[in-house]
Design brief:
globular; binds iron/sulfur cluster; Rossmann fold; eight-stranded mixed β-sheet; 342 residues
């Protein structure tokens, strides 16, 4: 296959809220707005942002649990938004999801064997022997003993349950896994084990990962590239090393500066982003970050900045840090990548 495994183009999701009786205009929640990115086989793209930025809605759109308002999701050359239900069901075999909560995402009435083989049994009948062989293989893949297959989820720890969630996602041999806050409910030491497991599986199978998280330490550990979301839009998309070494968007810079540094010899400029994330029902005009941005200018209040690809390959949506044309660049008095806050 040539080209990226997954290509997302202008993906948008608006929810209409029910208006009051006889109210003419129905309020809209702009959960995801004009999001585009691609993911290669064997790559991990992390999607990061504060709570309410639209990253979990994006995950649900990718697996088509919710339908987009507009935009395309092309998986291995096929547009998932344009196929019928039967074709979508078959396409979904290649794209599996690992959920945040390892406690509620597993059926408490089923054994581990049944839980992890269920996705295959949705497509074909398995004999008891076939099911046990498949379950044993999947358990070994995620570092668990096949002897555990007859236990219910209540007899496993949080980390083991998340391993079961990963085993279930692997059952159909997908080319892409969407992991939505897959380690955020786990202790830090268990988080590291699960992240290492995902990285090892990726090395063995060239599986692609879309890893959604609010935790930048996790993202820095596992990501190849990172997309930073703010109020439904991607505001920066860059390789992991460049993003953490030299954030381009003022919001990315503030997020990274807020992460505690365990090394006492490294000093990080303390940054406080004033205010809350605005409501997606009434987003600010122009750049949605302008009420909280120390660089905000008049233009930022009027015009939505486009996601502009910079010379080093990263894309940034900011009138000041990534001005569009040469005239804009000349007019800018903050040369990229000068620190916004330092
Ligand atoms: Fe700040 Fe303006 Fe850039 Fe938005 S476009 S991040 S308000 S400088």
């Amino acid at each position: 296959m040539s080209g990226p495994l997954l290509k997302v183009e202008n993906l948008t999701k608006h929810y209409s809220l029910r208006g009051r009786f006889l109210e003419k205009s129905v309020p809209m929640v702009r959960a995801v707005e004009d999001v585009s990115f691609s993911v290669d086989a064997g790559e991990t793209l992390c999607i990061v942002g504060e709570s309410g930025c639209g990253k979990s809605t994006l995950a649900r759109l990718l697996v088509q649990i919710v339908k987009p308002t507009r935009g395309r999701i092309v998986l291995a050359g096929t547009d998932m938004t344009a196929v019928d239900a039967n074709a979508l069901r078959i396409l979904r075999r290649s794209m599996q999801m690992v959920f945040q909560d390892p406690y509620s995402s597993l059926n408490p009435r089923l054994t581990a064997e049944r839980i992890i083989t269920e996705p295959v049994e949705n497509f074909q009948r398995l004999s008891g022997q076939q099911r046990r062989t498949l379950a044993a293989d999947l358990l070994r893949k995620v570092g668990m003993s096949p002897e555990m297959m007859s236990r219910p989820p209540s007899e496993f720890s949080g980390g083991q349950r998340q391993r079961l969630g990963i085993a279930r996602a692997l059952a159909l041999e997908p080319s892409l896994i969407i992991a939505d806050e897959a380690v955020s409910a786990l202790d830090v030491s268990v988080q590291a084990q699960i992240l290492n497991l995902l990285a090892d599986l990726q090395q063995q199978t060239k599986i692609a990962l879309v890893f959604i998280s609010h935790d930048l330490r996790v993202v820095e550990y596992i990501g190849h590239r990172v997309a930073v979301m703010y109020l439904g839009r991607i505001v920066e998309l860059a390789k992991c090393e460049s993003l953490f070494a030299r954030p381009g968007h003022p919001y990315t810079e503030a997020l990274i500066a807020a992460v505690p540094v365990p090394d006492p010899t490294r000093v990080r400029v303390e940054v406080v982003v004033e205010g809350e994330v605005p409501s997606p029902i009434t987003p600010p005009s122009g750049c949605a970050f302008h009420p909280r941005c120390p660089l905000a200018a008049e233009r930022c209040r009027i015009e939505v900045p486009a996601l502009v690809t910079m010379a080093d390959g990263r894309a940034v949506a900011c009138h000041v840090r990534a001005p569009l044309g040469p005239a804009d660049r000349a007019a800018s008095n903050v040369p990229f990548p000068a620190s916004t806050y330092g």
